Amino acid sequence: MSIAPSVPHVIDRATCTALDAADPLAGHRDLFDLPEGVVYLDGNSLGALPRATAAHVQRVIAEEWGTGLIRSWNDAGWFTKPVDLGDRIAPLIGASAGEVVLGDSTSASLFQVAVAAARLRPERRVIVSERGNFPTDLYVLESVQELLGEPARPLERRLVDDEGPTLADVLGEDVTVVVLTHVNYRTGRMYDMAEVTRQVHAAGAIMVWDLCHSVGAVPVDLNGAGADFAIGCTYKYLNGGPGSPSFVWVAERHQAAARPAITGWHGHAKPFDFDVEYAPAPGVTRFRVGTPQLLSVAALEASLDIWRDVDMDLLREKSLRLTELFISLVDSRLAPWGVEVVTPRQSARRGSQVALRAGVADGYAVMQALIERGVIGDFRAPDLMRFGFTPLYVSHADVWDAVAVLEDILSTEVWREPRYARRGAVT
Amino acid sequence: MSIAPSVPHVIDRATCTALDAADPLAGHRDLFDLPEGVVYLDGNSLGALPRATAAHVQRVIAEEWGTGLIRSWNDAGWFTKPVDLGDRIAPLIGASAGEVVLGDSTSASLFQVAVAAARLRPERRVIVSERGNFPTDLYVLESVQELLGEPARPLERRLVDDEGPTLADVLGEDVTVVVLTHVNYRTGRMYDMAEVTRQVHAAGAIMVWDLCHSVGAVPVDLNGAGADFAIGCTYKYLNGGPGSPSFVWVAERHQAAARPAITGWHGHAKPFDFDVEYAPAPGVTRFRVGTPQLLSVAALEASLDIWRDVDMDLLREKSLRLTELFISLVDSRLAPWGVEVVTPRQSARRGSQVALRAGVADGYAVMQALIERGVIGDFRAPDLMRFGFTPLYVSHADVWDAVAVLEDILSTEVWREPRYARRGAVT
């Protein structure tokens, strides 16, 4: 992993446009349809629309569905799409061909994988996760507890955090699976995947990584880290579209023994033999469940074309330059209002997003005022403003403009206007 | 349920076009983009493309995703789509508003529901289904067995069929859940939903209906039948597009007690509070799992517009007229080749599809020859040719033409040509 070049000490907007001019990824912005006048810093929640997507989906609708009809299951390769697109995601996460397959939602995929993982250590009765994990991961682990637990042998869910108990505190001979999200959804803190995996393996447990905020954001090397299972989402940094399908990764060495939670016909060894008994397909294919939602799959397919040419080290360099620039500008310009950077300043511990506490202001109201002025981030209860920096389409000038608008909102106190007051929440 | 008017005894193509001229649903064909020269009799596998779908999906991509970006979760109502569209499916299946919600695939939804159902009778240890059920239902029940079973209290899966043991044979105090598909995917045989539900309830068990081949094909009255749970698919007779989302129905009386298999954040009572503990949402919403695949949802939304105006009794009348016409023509014209109608001739026991055995010919090869000549049905191993009759866009002349082509293929023995020989399978 390369180190980002330092941001110059005296920064003005001209510095930012100069950085853009020198940015080898700057041209990728033209691959996206971003609305005029918007600084989009929420690609960590929903990625922007690639220019090629609409036409591709339209072709799938008109030609593959409308004209090909049922024949497209074979002729257009519909049946193997989840495997084919899995193979295209593989290089982005340090996986091999045949190790990745599309799922439904990340929640469903985590369930599918966590059950399989826990079954590899049936004698152990503790599942570990992190209190600050994205909540659905914790909810799904409740399902796993309920379904794999028995009255005589209950399964326990133990949550760790920095205040303790920590991961080191709870790891022991009773731990079956550890489920952690590589880059935290709120703080942007990134785990050392190899080191944590080593620690979990030293305790004899299975490591499941949630890559929702990593894939397409930072280089990931699952096989290099020796991890066991992973799941992730494609609608954030991969720009697959709203609710585009999740993916599942199963290390090759576990594939033969792994029994997925839900044994569906698309995971069957011979789905068109219509046998009465389930027989798992070889490899990761057995983690498929039912018929894939092919229009959402089509949008993902178009978005993956962009990734053929992306150098992940360049991507990471730019990501760190953007977040470092943002942190630096926040420090230098927003101190008067007590704005606090929550995300780690150490670059190796940071994903591609930065979270702020709004200090004297109400972060929710500040975010609404930002969005109204075209700077789109989001708010996560109870008090975090999140800003995602998608290196493919966010520019250094965007970072400058976002902080300038933020400063204006704080200095004018426009955020106090009643129309910005909390009423709902943005996903 | 109304009785179909008899098909005239002496049928020729003019009779069929006259029936089309008198058909009150004939105009609905114009709502679909069917390719020229195709007789599409596979809407029971993948429904045809509604004319309005492409533009609607395009608008969702360009405006809601491209321009609205993350704001569309609130502004475009993305978050509640699975509930809103559930409410629009409800009238088609005799359900009330608030009883239906979209899922991922039907396999995933059956798992979600079958676990909940079995938990309502935890002391009982037998799950019942039908040997001839669509295989994924049987595979999913293996998952339920594995996950709800315990070494000391295993769960048994018992399969019934007409040869025995029959449903009546196995129903007893040990049966927790019965899972049956209302209209059989191969034979088109339809159960008497009210009668079977009554029988299952008399044994104290829970009734789960799979409506994949019923919804949009025949009138369904879940509440009238007093059923407990149901799932179904939207890409067949509802024309939602390839892999469009499944749906889940939970009778209002069970909603408070039902605990879904997978407890995901979209089923949480307060998903944006980001609590560490799962708390089920009120009502059927708790059966939601993760982020819905919104482009596939959008296509479904467009297809549901068509159903606002459809009179289900008229639909059933036409469906029976089409299948009766097909059966009658097969009987009168294809007897020389030993072609056999597998689907029940009694209209009350028939869905909207007809299955044939090809007699002296190889059904697989015959179907390939049919498809090559623009008559699209499908083949189901080991020996069935399936023909689906979607009343919204199949005409009586289509039925005539299909049988005429079939007769030609059999009489010329063109099906014996090597290019039609079995190599793969069509979904």
UniProtKB/TrEMBL annotation, chains A, B:
Pathway(s) annotated for this protein in UniProt: Amino-acid degradation; L-kynurenine degradation; L-alanine and anthranilate from L-kynurenine: step 1/1; Cofactor biosynthesis; NAD(+) biosynthesis; quinolinate from L-kynurenine: step 2/3
Catalytic activities: 3-hydroxy-L-kynurenine + H2O = 3-hydroxyanthranilate + L-alanine + H(+); L-kynurenine + H2O = anthranilate + L-alanine + H(+)
Keyword flag Cell membrane: no
SUPFAM superfamilies, A to Z: PLP-dependent transferases
InterPro entries per record: Kynureninase, PyrdxlP-dep_Trfase, PyrdxlP-dep_Trfase_major, PyrdxlP-dep_Trfase_small
Enzyme type, top EC level: hydrolase
Keywords: Hydrolase, Pyridine nucleotide biosynthesis, Pyridoxal phosphate
Requisite cofactors: pyridoxal 5'-phosphate
Modified residues (N6-(pyridoxal phosphate)lysine): 236
UniProt-listed HAMAP family: Kynureninase (MF_01970)
Role according to the record: Catalyzes the cleavage of L-kynurenine (L-Kyn) and L-3-hydroxykynurenine (L-3OHKyn) into anthranilic acid (AA) and 3-hydroxyanthranilic acid (3-OHAA), respectively.
UniProt similarity note: Belongs to the kynureninase family.
Family annotation (NCBIfam families): kynureninase (TIGR01814)
Record note on quaternary structure: Homodimer.
Stated name of the protein: Kynureninase
Organism encoding this protein: Agromyces allii
Lineage: Bacteria, Bacillati, Actinomycetota, Actinomycetes, Micrococcales
Name of the encoding gene: kynU
